[in-house]
């Protein structure tokens, strides 16, 4: 079986200023086509050290993947190091130079002289196009092995890897296919999910089920190894059904979707429109629902009524209600939802009012207290939560919870 | 100057299941006592590969720090590898064994036999106590160099490093202090900044200036090495002033602030309030301005007028203007800003209308076309942009640009 070595380049990685997430991502991609990574190296911006490390990686691995050091400044030395390993010179590539000039021209920006270096390639190497930036990737053969260099920024590296590098690497795979697919859960903790799943999450299984958590969203990773892609896909599909049977509504997507994407899909499918009245989340729910392309199909009006006057003048909340119960109360939340739906004419409205903190909490109304109203059809449902932790956490968790409540509405 | 090499051990790191955050954390700690990390290695659970990597790291570095592979299972092989490097045997340490038994007894848990191995140490090595778990660390001398192994879980590694390892390492540092501070720029590219800064960014300088980019925000890292903390701080302060003198308004923060924080600070300082009328950014600008604690002090009203009807009914945009010029036009942007300011009574309003994509673009109005109006005092300034790339990029860049335009208003 062929194997890979990964090298991440940059002083900022060695000083702890930046965290190397590229290597982990690349190793997952490689594993999906059956290629294990046997070592990962992080080195600084030094041409001798970089070329030594490439040579060392080539000793054991068949494919060496490098990220970083392809920029236009003096500390970008990956192209020089590859030339050194190959024993060739750097040579100006006219086509690359015109692509880079074109990149700046299209954006109406002056091209700095330093960008010229990005048009130089080691002789015998080929360029990998970068539609997002000026740093082309580099691909070279070395004694039947493969050297690939890609830019460091993940937004440039990832599409280059998927579109240009992975297809070439797949041919090296020979035999076993390892596929990973993910499904998404919300509404309970990791340990509860592990308990419910029991043996499904046992080690050493095939398919293997792993679990990671980020911002309240629980991702289940299902890894299947098989002779063919179709077999692995079948195994994963079976395991997904089994998991859905156990977890039920906790699973919000059998694919890698966001909660907003799932809700958007349901709204579009039902031809329903939605309006939002946000206070403490300050537009975050509107932002999430409009992250999804085609949001014009379901999203009509959003209000960020941060002040009491805004709640009164824009949503028709009664000033007396605010005086009597406070801006953070189920009564005000209810009037916000009613106002939003009436004024927008939408099918559904969601209102949110709460105390995101760090200030503004009292004993009766602590930081983290949030009311969410879902006004759908004839029903106005009031939900009350007290979320812990920071301002960011409260806002994020509130918005995800609102999306999840709306998702569950569609299950009825 | 002494230097360090870091080795992270574990198959889960090579398969991308776990992200190695230990190395980055350790390298920051080391730098704070003047020890640069010259290489980071990630290898799997293989005793030969681990011992080869330790030897290799010792070739160049004076201190080799290892995390992972100290657990009780068969794939925990760090102690064996260190014994191999030192050319000694593993030996049962009675004191360690009783500590481990005690650990289980205190928790009223049966001790598995496999845990015995954790009481074995390479001869000549010393144990580092682990109050949090059963995996002791290992410290050994090797030809005037230092080998340190710590458990992989950050919650066990971090206290062990701080309490037991760092004090020993500090003696190697020869009194040098290395400080890093950051400053933030927006409004131009990395290469233009590098060109303007010229020698300021030369390699091998002290203080050293590095540059990283993320989402359009350019961060300059200023690293100074000196005998005392005060000297290093003075050097950084001087370099920051020099950079500000060259880059001028491109620098938006001499500290590590977000653009929204800087704008919020200016609004509060001036006692000005702001309202927002967003179309294509769908609440993202409101979200960013309310990310900052205390946003009630300056933020009043926000509208997410995604549909034409919302623009008309909520902001008083003239339907004829939309018919004549389209929703994405400077005329509509202008009426949105005027409506927002009139209806909210705020001192300043910002309006945004554009085509975030991926659909909806035409030849005359391509995806990425955005109008931003800043209505401040008597002046209404209309800004037109065509941002490239994805929906997410267009939305993100639009909002940062709006914040930056407002920041520059305050410079006048």
Short recap of the structure:
The structure is a homodimer of 412-residue chains. The first copy, chain A, has 412 residues and is of the alpha/beta class.
Number of helices of chain A: 14
The proportion of residues forming helix of chain A, as a percent range, comes to 25-40%
Q: What's the number of extended β-strand segments of chain A?
A: 17
**CATH superfamily membership of the largest domain in chain A, which one?**
MoaB/Mog-like domain
What's the arrangement of secondary structure elements?
The structure is a homodimer of 412-residue chains.
Chain A: E1 4-9, H1 11-14, H2 22-32, E2 37-43, H3 47-60, E3 63-67, H4 78-86, E4 90-92, H5 94-106, E5 120-122, E6 126-128, E7 137-142, E8 145-150, H6 154-170, E9 177-185, H7 190-197, E10 208-214, E11 217-226, H8 229-247, E12 251-253, H9 259-270, E13 274-278, H10 284-291, E14 299-305, H11 308-315, H12 319-325, H13 330-344, E15 348-354, E16 369-376, E17 379-386, H14 391-409
Parallel strand pairs in A: 1-2, 1-3, 3-8, 13-14, 13-15
Antiparallel strand pairs in A: 4-5, 6-7, 7-8, 9-11, 9-12, 10-11, 15-16, 16-17
Helix pairs in contact in A: 2-6, 3-4, 9-14
